[in-house]
Structures are given as structure tokens and as C-alpha cells.
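Page 37, continued from 36.
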């Protein structure tokens, strides 16, 4: 069997699909840049392009696609955000051209999480997308529920991209069966899992308990740079479980970095890890001053994480949101991860290649942590 390759636009998406592959019985690796020298069945690459302009995102995705074209593969999948944030059309069409694919089949719906498409409209838990919290996304507000409009096209004018309705697992299986060598499949984790089951026919692994690494002794550091997760009450969830909340000090929302404030913030987090066994480092709900971008705040959060880990050996690091996760692993200089069985769907459990600890658990900001995370990581 040739390699299965996933091109994701952020780290949390790459981790999510690596987890799905592991659960299906495959070995999987997550890479920050493509390295063909891997013995994993599934290689998930992040382009970190969701926040880029369409032209720059397409160029980055096309570069990786051309590198992949020289490798023998069983399946190539383009992972996109389940509610279609980012320059998805530009990336998908560029990848398809680079690989010589004539058809792009876009299936972002995740029926397992009650995210479906009916009549060309996207629904989350039965509510039109534009009426959910995603309407207030700081970077990609979902102002419409029409899929073709979310892609930046007028109705009926999405050249080269098919966007079928999907309301069930059966719909996913039927669409997966239509994927051939002329098709670039694009979508979320549910469609990817359907493709693994329908097109690749793996020997499924026996059901496994939560990986013992979740129960390994040592502190747990939670990192939240996700606006969606903060609005969902992540601080309250941590407080209820005795996990100390260490929100970004107001001084770090200014244009100039105050290294003394950054150091004190990390000291506070490290002290909480030593004393309670768990801490939450978060940007919080403060509004930055004009000229301070979300990327700048993510970088300062990542610097605080590095300083905290230098002060306290940590067994597990929980990362919410693709941009936050990428900023942290970039600050730490990590490039490749082996995927392990995770505590639940949507969560990637990643161990840096060549390192024993910490274990990084990564998920999109719009998904909750599974209950098993709290059971093993409460302070």
C-alpha cells in the first residue's frame, strides 16, 4: 500500500485526521513541512495557511502538492475547516491542478457532530450556521449559511468544486465510493474516515483503551488561544476542576513586548503546575490595543509556554486552536510528531519524534475536550 497523505491548513486539523487514522488501525505522523522519509501509513502535513490571503495560501498548498506528486501514494486528501473558514477554494483548486485532478469533491459536513448540509445550507445542531456563534468568529465571521457563498462564489458559480448535501454517514459512504484517480477529495474528518473505510479497506485495529500516556504521572498544562473556546467557557470548566487560570497579563496586549511581564506570567503558571498539578495559560477575553494582531498575541502565548516548560517538566500539553498549536510547536522548534491513541474524537495525541515527553494533545477550538481529559488532568 502506498502512503496516504493529508494536506491540512492548520495543525489542529492535521492532528484531528491523524487521530482518525490511528483509530482506524493505521500508523500516522503529523509534519510541519513535508518529509517523504516516513514509515507511517498516513502522513498529515499542515500548511498553516488558513489566515493567509488566497493567493499566498494557494501558492503554499501548490508547493506541497508538487512535492507529493513525486511520491507513490494510495490517497491524497485535502483537509478543510468543517465550517469553511479559510481560502478553501483557492487551495483546493491549486492542489487539484498540481496533481492533475479534474474534479474537486468538497464534503466539509461532520454528521457525527451534527454539522450537516441540506439544500445547500450549512446547519450546526439544527441551527443555520449564520445564526450560531460562528457568526462572530473574529477572523472568518460566518455571515451566511449558503455553502457556495462561504466559498466566495455566487450561487451556482463555484467552478470545478462540487458541494453536495450531506446529512448522514450513509451519504458520506456513497460519496466516498465515487472518488477515483481524477478526484481530489476535500473536507472534514468524517469524510476522511469514510474514505479510509470505503477506498483503502484497512485491517481495523482492535478497540483500545485510552492510551496509558494520558494516565502518566506529571503536570498538565492547558493552552487556550482560541476565541471560540474562551467564549464556550473554558476558563469556567478549568476553575470548576481546580485548574489554576493564568490569563495573559494586560501589559502583554500592548505593542511592545515586556519581557519582565512575560517571565512573571510563566513563573505563575509553573508555580501552579508544581503546586496543583495543572494550569491554564490563556489569552483570555481582553481586547488588544489597535495594531496588535491575534498572531502577535499567539506568539506571546507561545513564548510563555516555552518559559513555563523550562521551569516545570510537564507530562501533557493541551492545545486548543490550530493557530495557537502552530505558534507553540514553532516556538519549541518541533517539526514531526507520531500520533498515538487519543482520549476522544477530534483530539490528536502527538509525541515529538525522538522525544518521550511531553505529549501534545491538539484539537480545534470549536470542539470541547472529551470528559476523559478532565478525569485524568484535573488539578
Amino acid at each position: 500500500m502506498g502512503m496516504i497523505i493529508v494536506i491540512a491548513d492548520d495543525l489542529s486539523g492535521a492532528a484531528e485526521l491523524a487521530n482518525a487514522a490511528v483509530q482506524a488501525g493505521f500508523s500516522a505522523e503529523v509534519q510541519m513541512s513535508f518529509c517523504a522519509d516516513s514509515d507511517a501509513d498516513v502522513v498529515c502535513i499542515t500548511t498553516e495557511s488558513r489566515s493567509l490571503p488566497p493567493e499566498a495560501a494557494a501558492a503554499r498548498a501548490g508547493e506541497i502538492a508538487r512535492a507529493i506528486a513525486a511520491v507513490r501514494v494510495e490517497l491524497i486528501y485535502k483537509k478543510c475547516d468543517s465550517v469553511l473558514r479559510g481560502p478553501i477554494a483557492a487551495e483546493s483548486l491549486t492542489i487539484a491542478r498540481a496533481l492533475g485532478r479534474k474534479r474537486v469533491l468538497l464534503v466539509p459536513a461532520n454528521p457525527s457532530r451534527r454539522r450537516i448540509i441540506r439544500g445547500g445550507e450549512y446547519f450546526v445542531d439544527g441551527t443555520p450556521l449564520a445564526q450560531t456563534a460562528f457568526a462572530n468568529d473574529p477572523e472568518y465571521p460566518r455571515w451566511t449559511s449558503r455553502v457556495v457563498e462561504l466559498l466566495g462564489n455566487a450561487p451556482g458559480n463555484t467552478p470545478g468544486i462540487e458541494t453536495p448535501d450531506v446529512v448522514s454517514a450513509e451519504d458520506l459512504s456513497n460519496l466516498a465510493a465515487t472518488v477515483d484517480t481524477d478526484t481530489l477529495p476535500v473536507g472534514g474528518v468524517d469524510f476522511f474516515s469514510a474514505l479510509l473505510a470505503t477506498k483503502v479497506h484497512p485491517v481495523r485495529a482492535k478497540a483500545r483503551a485510552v492510551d496509558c500516556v494520558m494516565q502518566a504521572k506529571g503536570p498538565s498544562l492547558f493552552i487556550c488561544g482560541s476565541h471560540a473556546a474562551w467564549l464556550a467557557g473554558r476558563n469556567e470548566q478549568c476553575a470548576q476542576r481546580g485548574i489554576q487560570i493564568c490569563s495573559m497579563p494586560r501589559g502583554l496586549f500592548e505593542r511592545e513586548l515586556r519581557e519582565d511581564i512575560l517571565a512573571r506570567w510563566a513563573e505563575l503558571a509553573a508555580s501552579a503546575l508544581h503546586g496543583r498539578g495543572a494550569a491554564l495559560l490563556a489569552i483570555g477575553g481582553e481586547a488588544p490595543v489597535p495594531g496588535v494582531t491575534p498572531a502577535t498575541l499567539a506568539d506571546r502565548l507561545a513564548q510563555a509556554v516555552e518559559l513555563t516548560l523550562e521551569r516545570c517538566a510537564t507530562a501533557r500539553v493541551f492545545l486548543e486552536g490550530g493557530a495557537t498549536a502552530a505558534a507553540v510547536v514553532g516556538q519549541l522548534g518541533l517539526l514531526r510528531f507520531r500520533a498515538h491513541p487519543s482520549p476522544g474524537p477530534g483530539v490528536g495525541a502527538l509525541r515529538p519524534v525522538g522525544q518521550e515527553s511531553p505529549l501534545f494533545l491538539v484539537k480545534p477550538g470549536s470542539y470541547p475536550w472529551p470528559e476523559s481529559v478532565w478525569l485524568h488532568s484535573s488539578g
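The chain has two domains: 3-200, 212-377. Flag for discussion at group meeting. Residues 205-210 have pLDDT under 50 and may be disordered.
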